[in-house]
Amino acid sequence: MLAILLAFIPWILFFGLYNGNAPLAVLLAGAGTMLLVAGDIRKKKPVKILPLGGLIFFIAVGIVLITGSLNGAVSTAVYLLAQAVLAIIALVSILLGKPFTMQYARDDVPEIYWGHPLFVSTNYHLSWVWFGLFCINFAVPASGVFMSISYPSAVNYTVPVLTLLFGAWYNSWYVKKERERQTLISTNTRKEL
Fold first, then answer.
1. pTM attached to this predicted model
2. In whole angstroms, how large is the CA radius of gyration of the chain?
3. Could you state, in order of their start, the residue ranges of all structural domains in the chain?
């Protein structure tokens, strides 16, 4: 769980700081994702899709900031796009048959289990849950923009942070629950033999 929570720290920084200080938010989030990507490279591991997608996004937003193109409308679009990028990363990873949570799970699970149906189904389930949370994160500010719903600005910045923290908790809880279920099934199977 720690690795996936660490992967979201740049995004939490971005969402938490963006409204008050967009350049600082982009700088810190970009630096955080660079550290995550560099960590994978240093360990000679494949770069994970979440930090790689984040790095590309934060570099692009950094370029927009440097060119001075970040006005009110573009600023809102960037914030919405950030929410959408996370959902797209999760969905694309699922559609490609490589749920993004699997990359983190492989750091903690011996390779012999990577093809096990429980390992695979757990990661599909978790990646779909994350996709749903990312869609919620997109829907809240998007409804404000497209339906002229006026939320206190804190809502737009609190909801993403809370859903990311909930997702990290759920990720840990669900994995633990599935391991306990598998242990119970294995124990009962041995007793029947």
1. 0.85
2. 19
3. 2-192
